[in-house]
Write a structure and sequence with these properties.
The protein has ten helices and five strands; from the N terminus they run E-E-E-H-E-E-H-H-H-H-H-H-H-H-H. The chain is of the alpha+beta class and 213 residues long. The protein folds into three domains: 61 residues, Nucleic acid-binding proteins (OB fold (Dihydrolipoamide Acetyltransferase, E2P)), CATH 2.40.50; 66 residues, Orthogonal Bundle (DNA polymerase, domain 1); 61 residues, no CATH class. Helix 4 crosses helix 7, helix 8 crosses helix 10 and helix 9 crosses helix 10. 31% of the residues are buried.
């Protein structure tokens, strides 16, 4: 499993296909229009988070500029009849923050404006993910300094923050056992038992650990 890739850009085209030379191997990745805008030209270095999609007839790598886009991709592909190609199209339609707000607000009419996304697909996306993206939106708002952060909404104490982080991640669709393993590892690395824990940092670090597997 490839969690992320860093290397030199060999090819970059307007259709969202890039090739990255990492350690002498050329990796072909599909990216959204939003991520493509952040990918430099040939011979420049780039770092992308990666999702590996495996089918009987093909293995496709999808690249993402950040963890939020990768998480949104995984959420979108969990929606009935929304495959990886549709998910990349949706991600390319709006910046991540705007897309999350659109889904949370059940604004399926906006999603229909994205090429390849019909009315039924748009409605299914907001119906399936409308509640699930709320926590992700709160994390982004906290990171942007908009309103109280999650750490200000909860009492101090390591166990309380671990419980909150566990709830955040399971609400995003991660399995309980996987969350427990990742949370235990991250808590140890951050310094288990310290007097005060930053919930936002704990959630981000645990999410990164989950996605690296």
């Amino acid at each position: 499993m490839i969690g992320w890739i860093q290397g030199k850009v060999v090819r970059r085209d307007a259709a969202g296909l890039i090739i990255v030379d990492s350690g002498g191997v050329g990796y072909e990745l599909r990216v959204s229009i939003q991520t493509l805008a952040s990918v430099p030209g040939p011979s420049e270095r780039v770092t992308l988070w990666v999702h590996t999609n495996v089918r009987e007839d093909a293995i496709t790598l999808f690249g993402f500029a950040d963890l939020v886009e990768k998480q949104l991709f995984r959420m979108l592909t969990s929606v009935p009849k929304v495959g990886p190609r549709h998910a990349v199209a949706v991600l390319g339609g709006f910046p991540a923050r705007e897309l999350i707000e659109c889904i949370a607000g059940r604004e399926s009419g906006k999603l229909v404006k994205i090429p390849g996304i019909g009315k039924k697909t748009a409605e299914q996306i907001v119906l399936t993910l409308g509640d699930k993206v709320l926590t992700l939106l709160e994390v982004m708002r906290a990171e942007a300094g908009e309103g109280p952060s999650q750490t200000e909404l909860l009492p101090e104490g390591g166990e309380d923050f671990e419980d909150a982080a566990r709830e955040v991640l399971t609400s995003l669709g991660w399995k309980g056992k996987a969350v427990e393993r990742a949370l235990t590892k991250v808590s140890t690395e951050l310094g288990e038992g310290e007097a005060k824990v930053d919930l936002d940092a704990l959630v981000r670090a645990t999410l990164a650990e989950l996605m690296s597997r």
